[in-house]
Amino acid sequence: MTHFILRSVLVCALAVSSWHMPVLAKDATSTQAQIIGAYFSPPDNAAKAIIEQINASQKELLVQAYGFTHNAIAQALVQAQKRGVKVQVIMDAKSEKTNRYVVEILDRERIPYRWDGKHAIAHNKVMVIDQEVLITGSFNFTNSAQTRNAENVLILRSVPLATEYRQNWQDHWNHSREKP
Question: What range defines the domain where residue 153 resides?
Fold first, then answer.
């Protein structure tokens, strides 16, 4: 009798869990991605890996950031724009005060940015580079993310994934407000 009850509970649990299976991205099974790197900070220098990708950008660099206070990452964006890369940044609207140092840099260098206030928190940490490289993970673009928090960064080369993330980025850009 005990085995029957355990088997019944297991079957029910599997049935219920299958109702909540995540929806895969469009054509996710056919998407091939080259893993450029997976980083865990600390101890890995995730910020350095991000900056290397920014430095390699050639055409377009789209950023979504919740927290953005990391000076070296901001300076890498400035240098990318000076090389002719189109740089645009979306930040969480409630983080204006926290991100003010980077905002001053963006203003001074005339890098376009917007504030996403449509959500409780615009918690994305994403960069889409040249419509083929995707940077994502839990890593806020902050010094604390590099030195104090347990964070992760995944860098992939995949045109299909970068295209999906770019479209999502564009949707957020469209509903975000420009600086006051």
Answer: 33-178
Confidence of residue 11 (pLDDT cuts 50, 70, 90): very low
Residue 17 lies in a domain: no
Q: What is the structure's pLDDT at 137? A: 96
133-137/151-157 β-pairing: antiparallel
Q: Which residues are catalytic?
A: 123, 125, 130
Q: If DSSP states are collapsed to H, E and C, what string results for 21-83?
A: CCCCCCCHHHCCCEEEEEEEECCCCHHHHHHHHHHHCCCEEEEEECCECCHHHHHHHHHHHHC
Kindly give the interhelix angle for 100-109 and 71-82, rounded to the nearest 10 degrees: 10
User: In the β-sheet with 86-92, what is the strand arrangement from edge to edge?
Assistant: 34-41, 151-157, 133-137, 126-129, 60-65, 86-92, 113-116, 177-178
